[in-house]
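Anyone else keep sequences and structure tokens together like this?

Example one:
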Amino acid sequence: MLSTKNISPRQVSAFTALILATPIGLLLWYVEKDWIIALVCFGLIFLSSYFLISFVMERFIYRKIKLIYKFIYQTKATKREETYYKYILPKKSIDEVREDVEAWASEKKEEIDLLRANEQFRKDFLQNLSHEFKTPIFAIQGYVDTLLHGALENPAVNKRFLEKAATNVERLTNLLNDLDEISKLERGELPLLKQSFIIQDLVRETYESISIMAEQKNIRCSIKKGCESPLVVFADKEKIRQVLLNLVENSIKYGKQNGSITASMYNTDGKHILVEISDDGIGIPEKHLPRIFERFYRTDTGRSLDVTGSGLGLAICKHIIEAHGQTIHVRSRENVGTTIGFTLERKKD
């Protein structure tokens, strides 16, 4: 049985010509009772119909289809490519053309959706970047103006104002350093110096380095029971230290008084180690979870809290983990807590 799914233009022409010629040939045979006349007429009608239909399809349909292909695959084609698209391109069935055009339309729709998402991201990024720079700059401007208008001569305030201005200058410096680092990570200009080390030891070192910050809120930092057995990973130790510092600092900033932070490590499949940092802090609303690794992105609750930082910590964490060829994820519930986990390569034997 003739399949119409991938029928070619010649097959369409021949099939249509056959449908036209057959009843006419049978009618002539019935009237004239001469099969030779009927067969000759059948042949003439079939051939003339075939060439006429082929001409019409070529002239008015498939030439247009070739132009569509030219537009789809190469809007600006060279002379050689134009010749190929116009004359040499193999004829395809209508179904094949439809499938190609639908695939092209789907691809373009995905590109447009991506461009729209990137445009929105660009707007949000510029808005957040402006906000992060304005805050310390306006503070510095205020302190300097106050000092220039007489406070410089007042020993009771001049040192305090200069210290506050210096704090905001440091904040700006950290912001620029973080922006520079994340740009280098994206461009692959910060090479990874991988080595084998015990991830539990690095977590303990991280806890020790920020113990004063945790003590201020009486937050207890620990390794989950059952996860104490040493697990050796193969990664850039200093960059993973930076990831852990960012995650634990965030847990302290957004953690509750007398709360806890727990690190857990698991050998998942023999090839990877899963590291998770969990807290019992304010949590993150579900609608914000897909965006927390964006640069400068903060939730409404996060912005309302008086916390310092460049707003780039989680974005840097994401880039460092992805530079290792691994993944990072988040789970969170409001007023329950947050868990951020990432995978690392297990030590090679």
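And example two:
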Amino acid sequence: MYNGMVTTTGELGKRGEDFACGYLVEKGFQIIERNFGAPWGELDIVAKAPDKTLVFVEVKTVQGNNFQKLMPEDELTSAKVKKFEKIALFYANKNPQYIDVRRGWRMDAICLTEGGRNFSIAHYENI
């Protein structure tokens, strides 16, 4: 149970991914897979959008009381986005059954700031 105390990055990331999955399901997405691992990285969430587009979601979570006032978007460096794209392309090629030929696939980012027991959320499509 979360008590508002500072936690490890892994615990914070898991809470953020859980919250992001709930948010996506509320928006009509179907979660296909979580934490898909490749030798060079991981996909946080693989989902199917309501319009049948395959969506790879990178989740970035920070605590609202962080001392450096980092925003989760600060974590989306060009190097990390390129790595994300490489893993997404690998997954898409390995799992063509999930791709609607009319819709294709895209990469999204969900950026969360945790404050107390709540999250503020920003969902960026087609990063």
